[in-house]
Design brief:
This protein is α/β, with parallel strands linked by helices and 313 residues long. The chain contains 12 helices and 7 strands. The chain has helices at 17-25, 36-48, 70-78, 93-103, 141-149, 169-182, 187-206, 219-226, 229-236, 246-254, 277-284, 288-299; strands at residues 60-64, 83-88, 109-113, 126-132, 152-163, 259-263, 303-309. The chain has a 7-stranded mixed β-sheet, with helices on both faces. Strand 1, helix 3 (70-78) and strand 2 form a beta-alpha-beta unit. Helix 6 packs across helix 7. The longest helix has 20 residues, at 187-206. The protein is globular.
């Protein structure tokens, strides 16, 4: 068991073959989609990539697990003076990503093949490292996190997006329900079962269970999933998936000399949720880390969108 509480679920190095096959069949994300997280990311990058007065160094960003490149290309459009690199291990998605960049007329981004679960040879360090919705698909998560963290330069930032254990607990049980029913059926039939489940039982058992879409996890999110096969497969029949608590995220950052500097998009003061003075006073008596743990227990997030910084030596 690692310090972060994640056991070695799979002794094979790298991303499992079934995960590669899954995203070869359903390249993700596959569609343009606006989201609250995207706006938060843009604001953060605008702050962190700003050129200090008198400095003329090219800023560099890497997107580890870029998939079809929609996020990478969108960011490259917004920051034309920044050099972007997208890497992914899934077969076929990089061709989609390169075509996406070409059709958008973007020339400050390139895409390369790399497996976050293996060594990342020949990589220099970057001002910002993105790893969004990737690490929870890698069995040996702590090792993979270490490789990603190693790409962050002194003073640079790492932004990760991971599933939250508390908020996705019911959704995980829905996935296990489908796994039991599917047995050894091929992936297409598993997806058919997932679709029927959402159509027939979604309003009772899937709504607000913790699945993720740009349109939330209510009825609107269910309807959106039913129209997006890549997302439907990603959310309902993942090849491999695990989730964490904020304490485990803390440990991952600390183990690699990164300070967790921002829980993006989440109010971290109890006063946002209550005006009761006794609760707020007890909350303020906690350490900074335990305050975030308390917020974690309270709101039970379906995912963590967090940023860490490597303090310059």
């Amino acid at each position: 068991m690692t310090r972060s509480g994640i056991g070695p679920a799979d002794r094979r190095p790298g991303i499992p073959a079934q995960v590669r096959a899954h995203y070869k069949r359903w390249p993700f994300p596959g569609v343009e989609h606006g989201s609250r997280e995207g706006l938060i990311l843009l604001r953060s990058l605008a702050e962190w990539l700003r050129q200090p007065e008198g400095e003329r160094r090219t800023r560099r960003v890497i997107d580890v697990g870029c998939g079809t490149g929609h996020t990478t290309v969108a960011l490259a459009k917004h920051f034309p003076d920044v050099e972007f690199v997208g890497v992914d291990a899934a077969e076929g998605v990089l061709g989609v990503a390169r075509g996406h960049a070409e059709s958008a007329g973007i020339d400050n981004v390139r895409f390369e093949s790399a497996d976050v679960g293996d060594e990342l040879p020949g990589r220099t360090t970057f001002d910002v490292v993105l790893c969004l919705g990737v690490l929870h698909h890698v069995p040996r998560l702590a090792e993979a996190f270490g490789r990603v963290a190693g790409l962050v330069k002194d003073g640079g930032y790492l932004i990760i997006w991971l599933y939250g254990r508390f908020g996705r607990a019911h959704h995980s049980q829905n996935q296990q329900f489908l796994t039991l029913l599917a047995g050894e059926q091929p992936s297409e039939e598993r997806l058919t079962l997932a679709r029927i489940f959402l159509e027939e039982l979604g309003s009772r058992f899937a709504m607000d269970s913790g699945f993720y879409t740009p349109h939330g996890c209510g009825l609107e999110g269910i309807e959106w999933l039913l129209g997006q096969p890549q997302w439907l497969a990603d959310q309902m029949i993942p090849a491999f998936e695990q989730s964490l608590s904020i304490g485990e995220v803390f440990d991952l950052f600390a183990d690699h000399s990164l300070d967790l500097v921002k829980w993006l998009g989440v109010p971290t003061e109890l006063g946002h949720f209550t005006t009761n003075s006794l609760l707020i006073d007890r909350f303020h008596s906690l350490s900074a880390r335990d305050r975030l743990r308390a917020i974690d227990f309270l709101i039970k997030p379906t995912y963590y969108f967090v940023a860490g910084r490597r303090v310059p030596t």
